[in-house]
Write a structure and sequence with these properties.
Number of strands: 9
Helix content: 40-55%
Largest sheet: 9 strands, parallel
Structural class: alpha/beta
Number of helices: 9
Strand content: 15-25%
Shape: globular
Radius of gyration: 18 Å
Length: 248
């Protein structure tokens, strides 16, 4: 009888926890229209670019509403695209790199985690990623690899320095047409159900904000839970060795 009760308790416990979806909206800070992210549910995580005209203001307002705030760090890309203020490059020595990083943190309040803006070149490099992870460890921050290159060293360096690492699995809005957004949203539902959690990155495009405000209620009807990114840390810490071995 006790065994049956125990098995019933385990079954209920496992099935009472909905699969979890984390949505990060990044690239925030430059456009007046970015303020529309404040209309999103507080479970949506917001990642803000450093030293931007609206970044500090939006981050402060969003934090007051209960949003989790991340720092969206500009990192050098293979295409040489301009980084903007606070950008990290492979020409920097350790002191300049860490000072630039510190200044970026000081420009945004209440930062819980970091993800990379661009970075297809810099995230491939062990030394800069090591400097980044040393700083994040001191700040008690997690890192989300936006996965702008399959050769990222972020996972390897995060494991070395004991920084919680997660990876973006779906980009929501490379195409902002209704049809394309719907296709990606269905992929989110499918992946979350198959692996119990998924990390999504989108951007503060008017089309994206409107789509999310219209469709996020579908998550609960599909037995999925929208959570802040840090809520997935227990999953990702458990899987970190596997993640860091992946090249995808």
């Amino acid at each position: 009888m006790r065994l049956l009760l125990l098995l019933a308790f385990i079954f209920i416990s496992v099935h009472s926890h909905a699969a979890q979806v984390s949505i990060i909206i990044d690239d925030i800070g430059y456009r007046q229209t970015d303020e529309a992210v404040l209309s999103l549910p507080s479970s949506v995580t917001l990642s803000v670019l450093p030293h931007t005209p609206l970044g500090k203001k939006i981050a402060k307002q969003a934090s007051a509403k209960g949003h989790e705030i991340m720092l969206h760090l500009p990192m050098q890309a293979l295409n040489g695209k301009k980084l903007g203020p606070g950008g990290l490059t492979n020409q920097m020595g350790e002191e300049e790199f860490k000072q630039t990083l510190s200044d970026a943190f000081n420009s945004i309040e209440n930062v819980r985690g970091v993800n990379n803006h661009m970075g297809s070149l810099l995230t491939q490099m062990e030394q800069p990623m090591g400097w980044l992870m040393q700083t994040l460890k001191q700040q008690d921050n997690y890192f989300v690899d936006s996965v702008t290159t399959r050769y990222s060293k972020a996972g390897e360096m995060a494991l070395k320095y004991g920084v919680p690492l997660m990876r973006r699995e779906i980009f929501l809005d490379n195409d902002v047409s209704e049809k394309a957004l719907e296709k990606q949203f269905k992929q989110i539902l499918k992946l979350a159900k198959s692996q119990n959690h998924v990390i999504v990155i989108g951007h503060p495009y008017p089309e994206t904000i409107a789509f999310l405000n219209k469709n996020l209620s579908r998550l609960s009807s599909e037995s999925l839970s929208l959570v802040k990114t840090s809520a997935l840390l227990p999953y990702r810490i458990a899987q970190q060795p596997q993640l860091t071995d992946s090249r995808h």
